[in-house]
Every structure is written in C-alpha cells, then in structure tokens.
Amino acid sequence: MNAFALGMRLLWGSGRRARVRFLLMALGSALGISCLAAALTIPAIISANDARVTSRVVVPGANKNVVYQEFLDPYGSEPLRRVFIARTGVGPIPVPPGIKALPRAGEALISPRLSEILASNPRAAGLVPGRVVGTIAPAGLGGPDDLYAYIGTSPDELSAAAPLGHFGAKNTQHELLDPSTLDILRFTLGCIVLFPLVIFLSVCARLSGESRARRLAALRLVGLSMRDTLRVNAGESVVAAFVGAVVGLIGYLGINEVMAWVGLPGLRWYPADGRPDGTTITVCLLGCPALAWVVGQFSARRAAQSPISVRRTGERKPPKKYGTLLLIPGLGIISGYCLLDAMGRNPSGGSAGALLVPGAVLMTGAGLVFGLAPITAWLSRRLAGMSQSLPLSLAMRRTEVDPGSALRVVTGLVLLVFGASLTQGVLIELDQVSRRTAPVQEYSLPVAEVSAEQRTQMVALRGVRAHGVTAESWVPTLEGNVPRVQAIVATCARLAAFAETTHGCVDNKVMQIRDQTYPFDDDARPGRVFPFLLDNGRRLAFSVPQDAVTVRTYDPSELAGPSLLIPPSFLPPGTQLADASFVLVSPSDPATIRSVLDGIGAIAPTASVEPVGIVIDSLAQLTVIRSLLVVGMVLGLVIGVAAFVVSVADRAMERRGQVTALVLLGARAGTLRVVQVVQVVLPLVVGLGAAIVTGWLAESSYLITGGGDVHWDWDGLPLLFACALGVVLAAALASVPMVRRHIDPEHIRRD
Predict the structure, then answer these.
(1) Is residue 465 exposed (0-12), middle (13-18) or buried (19+ Cβ within 10 Å)?
(2) Element (H, E) at 119
(3) FRET pair for 717, CA 20 to 30 Å: which of 18, 124, 426, 437?
C-alpha cells in the first residue's frame, strides 16, 4: 500500500503533463469499456427476446374449455403472429404473460406496434377482426416492434382448431436468431470487436511509456526495490483503468437508453434488456484493471531490472519472432482449403472445417498482431541500408530501434480490415442460406384477395419488373381423372421477366409452353380444349395450339409447369380468371425484397403473400444479423481509430526531445514531417497489405467450407483496397500536425 500511495503522490505531484496523461488513460479505458459492454450485452438482448417469446408459445393440451388456431403471416417484410382463441366451456383457462385475461369472442388484444399500424393504415383493420380492448404488456412481447395479437372468436370460425394446454415451452422456440447463426455472429463480433479492444486497452495502459520508464528507473536508482517499483507503475495504471471502467459503464447505460428508443433495422429492445448484468459489470470493472496490471508489470519490468540502460537510452533488444510463427499454421489451413477448391476438389461438408477454419482465423489474426513488429523492424533495417534519402533513413532507423510503437499505432486498423473481410464472408454465406439464389424474386397472392385497383398499385411499386396470373383449367367434377392444364396470363415481355430464357414467343397469340426444367405435360396435347372459369361465373375455352414457346424457368417459380400462355387481351374487359394467383417479380437483392413486401403490405394488408422460395422469418433474421454486424464494424472502427489517434499523439509527445535535438542540429520542418509520416505509413502499409491478403483467404476458406454457391468474393476486394487506401491517406494527413519545431530545452534535459 505504501508503494501504491507513493505512485499516486508522484502522479499528482509530477505536474500538469502527468495529470493529463492520467486523464487520457482513463478516458481511453472508458471508451474501450463502453464498446466492451455493448459487445457483451448483444447476446443478452437476444436471449431476453427469446425468453419472452418462448414464455408465450401456445402448447396444445387437453383443455376442454378453450381451443386455438395460430397464424403466421408476413405484414410487408415483418412477421405477424395471430392467435385466435375460442371458448368452448365455462371453466378456467390459462393466460399468457403480458395480459390479464384472454379476449372473448369479438374482442382482441394486440401489441403496441400493431396498434400503431391499425391507427395509421385503416385498410389493415381486416388483420384483427373484432374490437381492440387493450394492448399486450412487454412481458408478452419479444420487443417493441413485435407484431402479435390474441383474437377472440367462436369455435366454428376455426378450420383447424386444437385444444389449448398452456402457454410457455420448456425449450427455446421462435428464436430471434438461429442458434448456429448466433454462434457465427458471436465469433465474428469477437474477431472484429473484442480482439482489437484488448489491443486498445493495452495501448491506453502504456501511454507515455518511455517517460514513465525513465521515472521508474530513477525511483529504482534512488533505492526503491524492484517489486515496489513495479507496484508504483501498476498502481497508476490500475487506478486509471478502474476510473475509466466506471465512467465507461455509466456512459454505456446512457447510450443503451438512447439506442433502445431509436433501435436498429430489424431489432428494437427494451432498455432493461440492454442493461449490463452482474457478469458483464464484473468483467468490465475487474477485467480492465487486471489487464492494466498485467500490461503495467510487463512494460515496467525493464526499468525495474536495468534502470541504468533506461536512463542512458541503452540499446534495445530486437522484437521476438515467436508470434510470427502463428501465421504458419493459420495461413496453411486457410490456404489449403482455397487451393483444394481452386483444383476443383470441393472440401465443403464435414465437421473438420467447422473446427479448423475458425481456429485458423484466430491464429492468423494473432499472427498479424505479434508478427507486425519483427516484420516491420526487418523491413526498416533493409530500407535504411539501401536508402540515400535522409528523411527515409531517419524514419527507418527509428522504426528499427522501436518497432513496438508501430504495433500500438496500426494494430487496431489492421485488425479492422482483417475483420471486415471476414464480415463480408459471413454476410455472403448468410445471404445465400436465407434467400433463393436466382436473380429474381416472385411474390404470389390470391387474385380473390386483391382488387383490380390494388393490383394496379402493386404493379407500380418500385422494384417490380413484371406481373402475371396463373390458374388451372376448370373441371366440372372431382370424380375421375379429368384432364386439366395450367395457364399463364401474360405478354411475351412479362413472361421473359419471369424466366431465365425464352424462345419463339409471339404476342397476341395463345401458345403452348415447353419448360426445359419441367416434365412434359401429357394432358396438353395440341387440339385439346380446356375451359377456364372467370370471376364473373362465365367460362372461357382455349385450345392447345401447335405453336410453342420454349422457356427455362428459375427454381423455384410459380411459373414452372404451366402449359398454356394466354395473352391478357383474350380475356373480356374487367374480368379475371377465378381461383387464380397474381404473381409479381422483382430483383432478388434483400433491400428490394423488403421494399416490395412493405409496399404490398401497405396496399393490401389482409392479403396472403407468399415470397416464393424464401421464409419471412429468414428475411427478418438476415436484417437483424446485418444490423448487429454493422454495429460490430462501427465499434471496431471506433476502437481502431481511437487506438491510432491515441498512439500517434502519445508517440509525438514522447519524441519531442528527439525532435528538439534534430531541430538544434538543423533539421528542416519538411524533413521532420516526412520522417513522422513515413514512420506511421510504413507499418500501416505492411499491416494493411497483410490484412487484405490473409483476410480474403480467410473469407474464401469460410465460404468454401460453408457449402454455398459463392466461394470467391472477387467483388469485395476493390472495397477492401479502397478502404485500406483511405486509411493510409487519413493516417498520413493526421500525422503531419503531430510534429512541432518549437525548441524547449526542457525536452533534452538530463536529470
């Protein structure tokens, strides 16, 4: 305790500069702890959502007093769940969380978000038949944006009623994110947030390392023991880290309240869900000071063991190369998967890839961090030996002597680029799993549920390329094997928008369709006549012609299999085929799909929409994952930029004595600025180049083992190069103001 008290007295008695350093250490730790708390509470937010959703799951049973039927429909791009309740007796019935009693016939209880939709869109009233008598409390909802309703009705209105047992399942159901997807998300967030965060907190704990080492060496020379010297240094670091941890947690609490109110695309939560629990608080309040203690013990050991060499600026040991060896197995594994795929031998599948690739990614990232210092020192020594330029020689010799400073300056940004590559791979893989791989997306609606005016509005939606109508021929009786055929009502241009290829189509002419991806229809023989029922009750007959149009449809497709193409002009004005499906087509990128679904939901909220080939829950999950990964990238960017700014500013302050000495020797301002810029840019270029190459290989190996259609993300490389170039230019410009030519004799004074 005496050594600890001595360290604090020396801190506050060392002048304004020491107090500013302490404040910077605390603020840096506060920023890091805020990011750490945000990363740790993301799984807690998801778990709280899943727990409440699971507690309201309807479980069938043997209750004779009530029956139910549950519906899951898309309202735009959001899932809407409705539970219809019908009482069949007068006895007691279970009650789900969030409400006091189940609604009676003609009543409804809805979520606040659904209430807002009904108030703003009167056409959506058909979603909730009956009188709304209340709203569901947060205990019965996954989140503030949950669309949920309990609707009271009579038993004869339910076509597939089941006896209600109780509410709440033992196992988690209707998860916000699939468990396997959640594991991938945790791993990715750990790579792009937690790994750089450890580096950043270590940087904050080692601010003003050279001056602190000289001060500790002076204490050691005047008689302080080595153990007490280490305690003096660790005490300052631990106090700064603890103060920063407290401030960071308080700051995160405020950020959580704001973000819970604002929300993310596809995800909103209640403020209580995002408040850190006991484990998170313990990790933040104890983990950060513990890391500062370890870093302080390591950074001060040289000053405590060899104070003379520190005071006299003795020769430093070259950085150890053991960390670089981690790149060998890491790159070996991910390069092996890439090589096998390039040779045409697909190594996807099996459990080996699920273990080897994440381990290889971690080893590669660690190798980038620990291998940057020795690689930079070796490269600096070679460049300094070959260079004839004074600024370049000065910069390279300084980098060769102190390559560890390069590690502190650029590691955060290097890991950010490496993590960005991995994030691109995760998004590509999840995008392949969550949606169809065809370049178009179809939407099917029953014609009977949408009016002619609504169909016209849907066709005009942004992103909709074409539309058509599919229907089967009318049969007078269901007895016997009556021949029937399916037809498409569309023009040739509309048919081409749905299909991959079309050949031989002629407008204003009934034609036979031959689909190369569908078996031949034996009933569609030329000359055979098939009647079609119109919505006005009349029948219209069409004969199968000899002329045919050859198409290749996508899989799956609502237009795969029909054997007749009927021009829209052949139908009487104002009529449509009965029992038909109205089909729209748009590009298949997620943004367009969500836009079209939202537009359909606004036009016909009660219509049953089927996004062909995708599940609405998967689309909602993809939106949540994208939002969380964007949050992770933002946190990683904040951490990387903060580490860079703190390190560059600290290094400029530490080297003021060297700059002053060079100024006294006649160095020009331009020379000093070039030296400063080169010292920052060289390790950054080396690190970012390695991050792009290794990150792209890691991304490719992940895509290869994932088993998707996309194995090589060529489209993402230009973006990574552009980001890396922007980082280098920004770092070079930010380094220029750090050099000052003001001569202060105090900077070169020797005690």
Answers:
(1) middle
(2) helix 112-120
(3) 437
Structure tokens at 729: 């230019």
CB 85 within 8 A of CB 129: no
H or E element: which one contains 195? helix 195-205
**C-alpha to C-alpha distance for 13 and 10, rounded to whole angstroms:** 5
| Helix, strand, coil % over all residues of the chain, rounded to 5 | 60, 15, 30
pLDDT of residue 528: 84
Beta bridge partner(s), residue 740:
none
Alpha carbon of residue 288 to chain centroid: 26
Instruction: Using the predicted structure, report yes or no on whether residue 423 has a pLDDT greater than 70.
Output: yes
Handedness of CA 560, 565, 571, 573 (dihedral sign): positive
Arithmetic mean of pLDDT, 103-124: 84
Residue range 499-510, pLDDT digits in tens:
888 888 888 888
Give the percent of the chain with pLDDT over 70.
72
Instruction: Report the C-alpha gap between 181 and 478 in whole angstroms.
Output: 46
Predicted TM-score of the model (pTM): 0.69
Answer yes or no: are the C-beta atoms of 98 and 140 closer than 8 Å.
Answer: yes
pLDDT-derived band of residue 434, with 50, 70 and 90 as boundaries? low
Single-letter residue type at 137: A
Sequence-separated contacts (24+) of 279-283 with Cβ below 8 Å: 280/37, 280/40, 280/41, 280/44, 281/249, 283/36, 283/40
Residue 670 has pLDDT above 50, yes or no: yes
Any idea of the CA torsion for 169, 172, 173, 176, to the nearest 10 degrees? 140
Closest by CA position to 414, among listed 152, 595, 639, 218: 639
Q: What six digits make up the tokens of 34?
A: 């805020």
Helix axis angle for 179-189 and 616-654, nearest 10°, is 10
Are 34 and 255 in contact by the 8 Å Cβ rule? The answer is yes
Most confidently modeled range among 95-99, 170-174, 653-657: 95-99
Q: Which H helix or E strand runs over 1?
A: none
Q: Is 684:413 a contact under the CB 8 Å cutoff?
A: yes
pLDDT at residue 751, rounded to an integer: 35
Instruction: Give the chain's length.
Output: 751
Q: Token pair for residue 10?
A: 């020396």
Alpha-carbon distance of 580 to 115, in angstroms, equals: 32
Report d(CA 85, CA 68) in Å as an integer.
Answer: 5
Q: What is the mean pLDDT of the chain?
A: 75
Contact 644, 727 (CB under 8 A): no
What is the Cα–Cα distance from 717 to 506, expressed in whole angstroms?
A: 44
What is the per-residue pLDDT for 303? 59
**Residue 296 backbone phi and psi in degrees, to 5:** -65, -40
Q: At what angle do helices 616-654 and 209-221 cross, to 10 degrees?
A: 50
Distance in angstroms (rounded) separating the CA atoms of residues 271 and 260: 5
Q: Are 270 and 144 a contacting pair, CB within 8 Å?
A: yes
CB-based contact 246:32 (threshold 8 Å): no
The torsion of the CA quartet 433, 436, 437, 443, rounded to 10 degrees, works out to -160
- Quote the CA–CA distance of 427 and 167 in Å, as a whole number: 35
> Is the Cβ–Cβ distance between 157 and 84 less than 8 Å?
yes
Biggest CA-to-CA distance, the chain: 111
Beta partners for residue 87, in sequence order: 66
Please give the Cα distance from 378 to 382 (Å, whole number).
Answer: 6
